[in-house]
Amino acid sequence: MRALGVDLGTKRIGLATSDASATIATPLQVLNRSGSRLQDHQAIAAIVKEYEIDCVVVGMPLSMSGDVGAAAQSATVEVAQMTNVVGVPVLTYDERLTTVSAHQILQGNNVNARDRKAVVDKVAAAVMLQSWLDAQKQNFTNG
């Protein structure tokens, strides 16, 4: 099963994929927002087809307390819209602190601030997707 991790931002969308065994998440690319959610979702649908993705996992930007704030409400609406376009199941997963983790990973690899800005969204998508993959394996092992 291959999964696509999606980190929705207002200006950019970070994407990451899993390997076929759903074990390892890898940063894929950053899509710049086109100004049209439909166009953005169609671009994601093309990636779903190209990489033979079985499900899309969208990071849900919950508040630090776990509450559903404005960003999570907006993401929920976008997920519903995306579901009608991508052709595979679209799931959500808690993405709290993924961008912070992505910045730490990139800093730890001595990536300068300008270069980090270009890749942080896809690294955040990979951090979120890896967390989801690990949770799925844990649930499978315990269930």
Written description of the protein model:
- This protein is α/β, with parallel strands linked by helices.
- The protein has a single domain (3-142), classed as YqgF/RNase H-like domain (Nucleotidyltransferase, domain 5, 2-Layer Sandwich).
- Helix content is 50%, strand content 22%.
- The chain contains four helices and five strands; from the N terminus they run βββαβαβαα.
- The protein has helices at 37-50, 70-86, 98-108, 113-142; strands at residues 3-8, 12-18, 25-32, 55-60, 90-94.
- β2 (12-18) and β3 form a beta hairpin.
- The longest helix has 30 residues, at 113-142.
- It is globular.
- The mean pLDDT is 88.
Taken as a percent bin, the fraction of beta residues is 15-25%
What is the helix fraction of residues, given as a range? 40-55%
Identify the CATH homologous superfamily.
Answer: YqgF/RNase H-like domain
Find the CATH topology. Answer: Nucleotidyltransferase, domain 5
SSE arrangement, N to C: EEEHEHEHH
Q: Give the radius of gyration.
A: 14 Å
